[in-house]
Design a protein that fits this description.
- The chain is mainly α.
- It is built from 6 helices and 2 strands.
- The protein has one domain.
- 71% of the residues lie in helices and 3% in strands.
- The chain has a two-stranded antiparallel sheet with strand order 1-2.
Length: 133
């Protein structure tokens, strides 16, 4: 939220400083949002143009190279949360989101072959998850 020309938190619940890629991954790879890849790329470019104004020394290529790792981390985190909230707390919304999060994971590994080689066990598990759908 912007107030008096400065950014402010709307939700203080989990607000922490950290890598900017994490927030982008959380927003653009939200499972139920199903944002098309082309739109994601466009939004990332807009985000980086604005971030460059705040961080003039920003290396866009390095930032983009790190993003898939944050998408992977965030997707795994989300799957854990969806599983817990869905299977143990019996909340159907979270169960409904699991296949979409697994699809995000599958798509991520399909597009980023380097992740398949860097995380072969996670890649193998993601293939096993696809068999459950």
């Amino acid at each position: 939220m912007i107030k008096y020309g400065k950014p402010y938190f709307i939700d203080f619940q989990g607000g922490r400083r950290g890598p900017t890629q994490y927030d982008v991954a959380s927003f653009l790879w939200q499972a139920k949002a199903n944002i098309p890849a082309a739109l994601r790329e466009e939004l990332i470019d807009v985000y980086l143009a604005e971030l460059k104004k705040l961080q003039p020394g920003l290396d866009k290529a390095a930032w983009k190279a790190a993003l898939p790792h944050f998408v992977l981390f965030r997707t795994l985190q989300v799957l854990g949360a969806y599983g817990y909230r869905g299977y143990f707390e019996r909340k159907p919304h979270f169960l409904e989101s699991i296949p979409m999060a697994i699809k995000n994971l599958r798509d991520l590994f399909a597009v980023h072959s380097d992740l398949r080689t860097q995380y072969p066990y996670l890649y193998a598990i993601s293939n096993d998850l696809l068999l459950l759908l």
